[in-house]
Specification:
By secondary structure, this protein is an alpha/beta fold. Helix content is 39%, strand content 18%. Bound molecules: alpha-L-rhamnopyranose (RAM). Alpha-L-rhamnopyranose binds next to α9.
Amino acid sequence: MKSPLMKRGGMAVAALAGMALALTACSSSDGESSDPSGSAGAAGAESGDYSITFLPKNLGNAYFDTSDAGGEEAIEEFGGTYAEVGPAEAAPDAQVSYINTLAQQGVGAVAVSANDPEAICDALNEARDAGTKVVTFDSDTNPECRDLFINQATADGIAKVQVDMIAEQIGDAGQIAILSASANATNQNAWIETMEQLLADEHPDIELVDVVYGDDDDQTSFDKTAALLQTYPDLKGIVSPTTVGIAAAARYISTSDAKGQVAVTGLGTPNQMREYVEDGTVTAFALWNPADLGYLAAYAAKALIDGDITGAEGDSFEAGKLGEYTVDADGTVLLGDPYVFDADNIGDFDF
Ligand code: RAM
């Protein structure tokens, strides 16, 4: 096995914890800017080809702080220049102006988590025409708009772990709702579609009564949780496939009468969810290692810049401490499997 995290066979807890601890030494602040005309390009121009800018769905999201810090760690390893820019809000076309600026500045690569599969495509393809490599990670665009997509785990795997958790937590029966990120998010929409199918096929006594969108904004997600509880008095559970949504839902429920009555699960970071696991609001939730995702995206960008790969199926490249990865169909590289966190193991993680 070349990777400290297993790519397809499940994550080793000790390895994941080790990665988490290493992460505390990283900072995602270098070059961080909410200004599309910020420092990224200037820094990139100075350092040559390995100027790689991370463009998350939005700034101020702990998940992307961690993923982008993983990217920064990788870029430092191979002597490149890291930067991070991004919008305050996870809106469909909010990333376009940043991409345009990065293309003008001639950065070597952009690693982007897309708020919409289509809205940033033209900008990305113009950047590619200008010589910038485009790696999507976490949330893809349409495949023709990027060179590679670094996928955290398969949609089937991410959907199944969430359906399994909610079924377990509510005795496989009753009303549930989904609190998602933004309505156009490629990743959440793919997972929700698969969750709906799994519920229909395998959990006939669970009724999905609503899908609502908190836009990966804490307050909006908090308010949507309150509204769900009011609209559906018999609600048994909320599944939130976003780290922002699940933390906001847990915070709301932790101080409401619904605590202990309405299960909350989905995808969260251990540091954001710790207090809600400890106070009994949340039993279990899942995620992958966001730092590894960013780290892998950075090495994929390097391989593209070097011309070692083009993003074709079967291409392979070295990703530092994670080992060798191979490009699958549709220009996708798979990081691994989701991992379940609960009261027994959450103390092992720090991210
Ligand atoms: C949020 C974002 C991100 C997603 C995680 C699980 O931070 O929506 O795209 O992958 O949650």
